[in-house]
Fold this protein.
Amino acid sequence: RMGVTSWPLKQLPGCAQALRERRAIVLTFSHHDLPHAPERRALFGPTTRVGLILPFFAGPRTQGVLIVGEERRTRCQPVSPERVAILELVASRIAHILRISRRLEYERLGERRRQRRLAVERQRLAREVHDGVGQHLTALLVQVRCAINEGNAAREELQVLERTASRAMDGAQALAYGIRHLERGSSALEEARSFAETMLRSVHCRLTWVEERTDLPVANRTLREIADVVKESVTNIVRHAGASSARVRVEYPDGRIRVTIQDDGVGFSVAEVRPSSDGRGLGLLGSFERLARIGGTFDIQSAPKGDG
């Protein structure tokens, strides 16, 4: 049956009895007697000969019935206890599935509430860091700069204080920004940065990673694909470039994301790169395909013995 139909339980005496007595009810229909006519019309077809109503209970406020109708004439004999027992097992499994589903839903709701509370707490901490620490450092910085301009102290000493206060204020602002964005979790780009630091450190290559701050929402799939391209590029630097330094810059121009990766290694001829049977060149092809899948582009600029 399509759609949703409801009936008062008092119109379904077989269902009411099954739920009340917590046992299976077997109904036998014929063309002559109509003791269960309303129930037959509501739950079964005109050709149904035997109907089984099996109750199940998924909790103190959740109960239901499994309804099975037998229409083949060869099965008009009384339903055996074995068949009833099998169907009761099926009904109990339905109840078990409903209990698990409700438990999972409660857990999801609880997790969402927990995440909302964490987000509120992070925002509060971010405000305190920005308004408390940041404002005091700003005041200190203003006073130091005034002293420098008025010549009230040794210029070199005040410049040291100025630089220290400036760095502390930048750190406080970065901390406040980071706290506010903790709910995003460990992003794919952060994992790629950790990968790059580990790999490049192993070959004594210095990494500079610069990432603009942004509130631009970027799809997780997009971040994963870009992160994989970054990892592949870093792997190529480690394997082939012989570089002493590498630089990764993440920017968000005009609502898009752009990642630039540079190194000071030996370089290579882009025109000569072709996938080969030993696997060389496949990484670059894979990077091109990854970015193409998310509507991006992959551009290489290099030359032998030049900047990569």
